[in-house]
Specification:
It is a single chain. By secondary structure, the protein is an alpha/beta fold. The protein has six helices and 16 strands. Strands 1, 2, 3, 4, 5, 6 and 16 form a seven-stranded mixed β-sheet that branches. Strands 7-13-8-9 form a four-stranded parallel β-sheet, with helices on one face. Strand 5 (110-115) and strand 6 form a beta hairpin. It folds into two domains: 5-134 and 284-351, 3-Layer(bba) Sandwich (FAD/NAD(P)-binding domain); 143-199 and 235-280, FAD/NAD(P)-binding domain, CATH 3.50.50.60. The longest helix is centred in the C-terminal third of the chain and has 17 residues, at 335-351. Bound molecules: flavin-adenine dinucleotide. Residues 11-17, 34-37, 42-44, 53-55, 60, 100-101, 128-130, 132-133, 174-175, 206, 287, 290, 320, 330-332 line the site of flavin-adenine dinucleotide (FAD).
């Protein structure tokens, strides 16, 4: 493709790229989507088997086409992947897979992308690569000495292999709570959190969080302040598995790990606990390393932006990275409005 110059290249074939592509349908913009996965579904394919969304389908939909009814109250991982695959088929988006973008340079106003399938050229670029490729594990003294198994939540699939083991689950977010909930049924678990875990009220799910995100978005558009501290988006949603774990009385944090030995962990009070496995549910940075020739990137993968637009390079936008590039933009229903605004800006840029 080195002999052709696209108007726009979208990097990443998950929900954020698809939301952008929806708003490109009636535009005369020659674009392509490059995704490093073999098949559709973005990072949903890499999550654990039992993961369900935390909102019903009508609150988990991309622009233009609502997610079909799910079997249960909340769509499963498989139903979500099916929806994303059907969505891209429905609109027949031009997607090439697998194509990994390794680096990007810019000369005389044109971006050159080095990929696993050769060079691609484009006048503009949208990065929609999510976070899953950049798992974060905190530095805790002795971590490299541990002789048991360590894994990040992004590599966790199901509880079977942990049956009858002793396991520390680290992290006070939704991943930590959900993985703890299912593993504690088959193994002896210990929960390590930095802060005391914060649970949302039982009746607060993604619907409420999204309504809050919308109210904030519209208030800010009008130049008004909105108090978004009522419910913290990062707090734990009481999905059925977490409610069930609460009934079993297993949702108790032992506090922080002070250090790690070859056999286990040392808690803040100095007591030791022998364990077989440590599961790090400690979040992600942003998957933006391939942009390092163009912009400055901090340790989390964040680059300077004005909303979704890169500040240091004209013609580059970043969509779907959550609070950084748009409140609730890392959700199916939340990404649409930022995708729409970004495509408007890309069109205007290409016209100039
Ligand atoms: P991704 O889905 O990660 O897609 C990015 C794509 O880009 C991937 O295919 C990736 O392989 C590809 N890629 C990355 N780097 C490159 C590269 N260099 N070159 C080419 N391709 C590349 N969201 C909801 O809406 N509702 C929920 O209920 C919900 N629950 C969640 C629960 C948990 C526990 C977690 C962890 C997340 C949850 N999310 C939920 C969030 C959601 O999973 C992610 O935010 C979402 O997948 C982000 O979509 P994306 O398109 O931005 O990124």
């Amino acid at each position: 493709m080195a002999d052709k110059t696209f108007d726009l290249i979208l990097i990443g074939g998950g929900q954020s790229a698809l939301a952008c592509a929806f708003f490109l349908r009636r535009k005369e913009i020659d674009y392509i989507i490059l995704d490093d996965q073999e098949t559709c579904g973005g990072s949903w394919k890499q999550t654990w088997e039992s993961l369900t969304l935390f909102s019903p389908p009508e609150h988990s939909s991309l622009p233009g086409w609502q997610m079909p009814e799910s079997e249960g109250e909340f769509p499963t991982k498989e139903e979500t992947i099916d929806y994303l695959c059907q969505y891209e088929d429905r609109y027949d988006f031009p997607i090439q897979r697998p194509v990994k973008v390794k680096s990007i340079d810019k000369k005389e106003g044109m971006f050159t992308l080095e990929t696993t399938e050769g060079q691609f050229n484009s006048k503009t670029v949208i990065s929609a690569t999510g976070t899953y490729k950049n798992p974060f594990i905190p530095e805790i003294p002795g971590r490299d000495k541990f002789e048991g198994k360590q894994l990040h939540s992004s590599d966790y699939r199901s509880p079977e292999e942990f049956k009858d083991k002793k396991i520390v689950i680290v992290g006070e977010g939704n991943s930590g709570a959900q993985i703890l909930a299912e593993i504690s049924k088959v193994a002896k678990t210990f929960w390590s959190t930095k802060e005391e875990p914060q649970f949302l009220p039982d009746d607060v799910d993604g619907r409420v969080l999204f309504d809050m995100a919308s109210a904030k978005y519209y208030a800010e558009k009008k130049g008004e302040k909105y108090d978004s501290t009522k419910f913290n988006l990062g707090n734990i949603v009481m999905v059925p598995s977490v409610k069930e774990a609460r009934e079993r009385d297993v949702l108790h944090s032992q506090g922080q790990i002070q250090s790690i030995t070859k056999e286990g962990v040392v808690w803040e009070d100095g007591s030791c606990q022998k364990v077989d496995v440590i599961i790090w549910c400690t979040g992600f940075g942003y998957s933006t390393g391939f942009l390092e020739n163009l912009v400055s990137i901090d340790h989390k993968g964040k680059i300077p932006t004005d909303k979704t637009k890169a500040k240091e390079t004209d013609g580059l936008w970043l969509v779907g990275y959550g609070g950084w590039t748009g409140f609730a933009s890392a959700t199916l229903i939340g990404v649409g409005r930022y995708a729409k605004q970004t495509i408007k800006e890309v069109s205007e840029y290409l016209k100039d």
